[in-house]
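User: Show me an example of a complex going from sequences to structure tokens.

Assistant: Sure. Here are the input components:
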Amino acid sequence: MKNNQKYSSVEDLPEASVASVSTVYIKTGSWRVYRPEIDKEKCIKCFICWRCCPDISIGIDEEGYPKINYDYCKGCGICSHECPNEAIKMKREGK
Amino acid sequence: MNRAGIPIEEYVCSGHSACPGCGALLVLRYVLKVLGKNTIVTSPACCFTAIAGMFPDTCMEVPLLYNAFETTAASASGIEAALKIKGKKDNTHVVAFAGDGGTADIGLQAISGALEDGHNIIYVCYDNEAYMNTGIQSSSLTPMGATTTTNPIGKEAGWKITPKKNMMDILVAHNIKYAATVNPSYPIDFVKKVEKAKATKGFSYIHAYSVCPTGWRYQPELGLEMGRLATETGAFPLYEVENGKYNITYKKKTKNVLEYYKLQGRFRHLSEDFINDVQAYIDQEWQKLILKEECSKK
């Protein structure tokens, strides 16, 4: 009986389902209605937008400006609202 | 390395299925940024179970264990005990990450037990003030005046008329080593408090304010604004309790609660009289908190 045996390694444990695929293949950008756009002239590189993004879709580009990854951005608009210099504008998708 | 005042490393990846503007994700993201990659997270049935992805997907870059609703703290205690036997506890952090229902209603006895046993874990409650995952049912952390699907608006007051349970005081009564309230709208304060919890040898509790645009019925871009209003009006005071000593970390209670309530659809039905009652309750709790802080200094 397995119950009476002493477990000596991980292999002896009962099998359990283990999630192993990263969600990065799910492009949540398709949920978006409004699209944030960064005005580089106004941007002061404070990275508050990066800090407050719940979708972790703001990175950094070669020039050191924040860069939005439209594959994952769900268009919540927090970055635009929090930007201290109003450098991010929300524009309707498809227009 | 830090950027904009918080650590740069990410342990949650994109592609998760949180609603746009979700507060719970920000809470987890900030907590893991501080704790680093040697962390094991355990989570009950809550919004986060759905957020992390459907099997076999996961948005986490650290191990995550799902458990039953009432067993978050019990499961974290088990992981901690196993790590101790393996001799790996010193550099591994165990985080229990539960919603408000799994903390204050269903999981309360497990936290009480784990705390009494003195397990060295970090319990993070992300408080979105109702059972949001299953469709906005009222929990004991739902604030006064809010309407939910189990507290519908009727001819008489159908909404929740009782105030929120004070989880912090319940845990302080257990002689907790470190307990703090945090708010993602104040990320630097958030990071500092999690660092203190990380350094604590023993049970530490983080009560995180977590906005929910879906359940609270407001525009998602106002998420962090909402957090600031909650703290500035005193509806969600920021403070910490270290070995029974209170310390209020944000003291500017400057605004009327109406400013916070009027932005959210869940409070739309409230009369002026009821909002005055809410204000009176919040003022009373704030006074109590100030007295507690003064007593701690003596």
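The lines above are the inputs; the final block is the predicted structure for all two components together. Residues 25 and 34 of chain A are 22 Å apart (CA to CA).
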